[in-house]
Amino acid sequence: MGKKRKHTETEAAASLKKDETAEERPKRTLLGWKNNDEDDKIQNGSVGFRNKEKVLVTCSRRISFRYRHLMLNLVDLLPHCKKDNKVESKESKGATLNELVELKSCSSCLFFECRKGKDLYLWMAKCPNGPSVKFLVNAVHTMEELKLTGNHLKGSRPILTFSSNFDKKPHFQLLKEMITQIFGTPKDHRKSKPYHDNIFVFSITDDHIWFRNYQISCPQSGGQKIDRGDLEKMTLVEVGPRFCLNPIKIFGGSFGGPTLFENPFYVSPNQIRSLEKKQKAGKYAKKVKAKTRRKMHEMENPLEVDEFADMWKE
């Protein structure tokens, strides 16, 4: 039998094998190959912030087809969103939605709540700590209705533009920050395309937020290229959808909590419908009063008896 090697000889043989082997390959990740230098940066904490925003988009039961199409249009525009089943719009919907957001590993939520089959409310919330905003959605026009000529790449990253009115009041500044986080597609998201070929426009008119989506169109003739910064040749073509957001309340928590802002000019759709019914009822009351006045007038001023009324009856 051969003699056993000493411990020093085994260590020397192992060191020779390590020198002869090739260098270790870098680890492969979703974003490419990771080097050892990047691991050192992660350990030292020198890596920059990475946006991992994910939005849960869902709706309530008994939603109308038009509002459901609007929700699906927004799902197509936001590649970093996730859909879920319909949720019952009860008082406990806040806890249910917070649980769904946690299960889907999202950080924000867009909840379309339809009441009486007519009124659409949009909840925009940061979960689970808030804040959250409740909007009334008006002037809804989906892509199927508009049939506009604009068209852009699905999943491309939009450019968000805001009117200067957003910086004048504190509650609009908060809404601007929430809209930026929810509607802005994160960089290097796996479902997004690395292009900017559309613009989301948020403008304030009469304390309402109006949304428009435009395609950035560049005329190309042959091999001619547009110079960088030459904006005169670029045009905007509307794609859709369109809608208007009327802010009702801003809450400190997610789907509830202390009220940070309440719109003093907000009038609920129920009050508007009741006023319209009262106006219609007023028209009917006027007709009844006119009939009674006519009867009283006829009783007070009777016609004279005609002498020749019964002449031909004999």
TrEMBL record:
Q: Which UniProt keywords apply?
A: Nucleus, Ribosome biogenesis
Query: Brix domain spans which residues?
Result: 53-256
Bias (Basic and acidic residues) occurs at 16-27
Q: Does the record carry Nucleus as a key word?
A: yes
Where in this protein does the record put region Disordered? 1-36
Protein origin, superkingdom: Eukaryota
Q: Which Pfam families match?
A: Brix
Tell me one GO molecular function of this protein: rRNA binding
What Gene Ontology terms describe where this protein resides (cellular component)? nucleolus
Tell me the compartments it is located in: Nucleus, Nucleolus
Q: Which family does it belong to?
A: Belongs to the BRX1 family.
What's the name of the protein?
Answer: Brix domain-containing protein
